[in-house]
Amino acid sequence: MAYQNLLSESSMITRTQSAELEKAIRAVLPSETAKLIDLAEQMFDDYKQGLIQHNEARNLIGIIQNKAEEAQIIDRDCAPVAIFSPVSYIPPGITLLKAYLKLNGFRPLVLELDGHNIRQMAGQIYPKAVVSLTLFHHIDKLAKLQSCFKDAGLDVIAGGVPFIYQHQNKDRLSFCYFPESLRELICKLSEDLPNED
């Protein structure tokens, strides 16, 4: 019985956290881009720490995506940033990533993770590509494409579920950079940009 009470309390905490975050996100005005960026980062961090359930995260990501479409953004002067995904649909994590990159002035472009797309888009996209993996077996697929990314002159920034739950999976992809946060991702992408005064 004590275990059930503990689970109930834990569930109540996550629902409260999610409700507070949803209220804050919905209150963001189109001119408050920095505030929306901070809330997106908080939502992602809370999800990684288990403070927000998966279905609650999906709901919050949808709200963030809608707010990003309305936000007043200053676009960066650079080629589109490719987000490669091993699945043919757009999972919630990539939806969040797209909205977050857009809020930070990048133009995200979602592509299926395969050699043909990598070769075809080389030279047309930003020199740092983002790869978001949703399942553990996608690690092997990405590993097999290492030479393809290298030949295309693309550095790989990777993340996703397999690395959140098992950090040692990063060891299998030594050619990739793994940011610890969304903010670190933006810093890594910004390294190749001219100084913005």
Could you characterize the architecture of this molecule?
This is Cobalamin-binding protein. With about 200 residues, the protein is an alpha/beta fold. It has two domains: about 1-70; about 80-190, Cobalamin-binding domain (Rossmann fold), CATH 3.40.50.280. About 55% of the residues lie in helices and about 10% in strands. It is built from nine helices and five strands, in the order H-H-H-E-H-E-H-E-H-H-E-H-E-H. It has helices at about 1-25, 35-50, 55-70, 90-105, 115-120, 140-145, 145-150, 160-165, 180-190; strands spanning about 80-85, 110, 130-135, 155-160, 175. Strand 1, helix 4 and strand 2 form a beta-alpha-beta unit.
List the helices and strands and how they pair.
Elements: H1 2-26, H2 33-48, H3 54-70, E1 81-85, H4 92-103, E2 108-112, H5 115-121, E3 128-133, H6 138-144, H7 146-151, E4 155-160, H8 161-165, E5 176-177, H9 182-190
Parallel strand pairs: 1-2, 1-3, 3-4, 4-5
Helix pairs in contact: 1-2, 1-3, 2-3, 3-4
Strand order in space, largest sheet: 2-1-3-4-5
Largest sheet: 5 strands, parallel
Give the topology string: H per helix, E per strand: HHHEHEHEHHEHEH
Name given to the CATH homologous superfamily of the largest domain: Cobalamin-binding domain
Poorly predicted spans: 1-13
How many distinct beta strands?
5
Keywords:
single chain, 197 residues, alpha/beta, 2 domains, 9 helices, globular, disordered N terminus, Cobalamin-binding protein
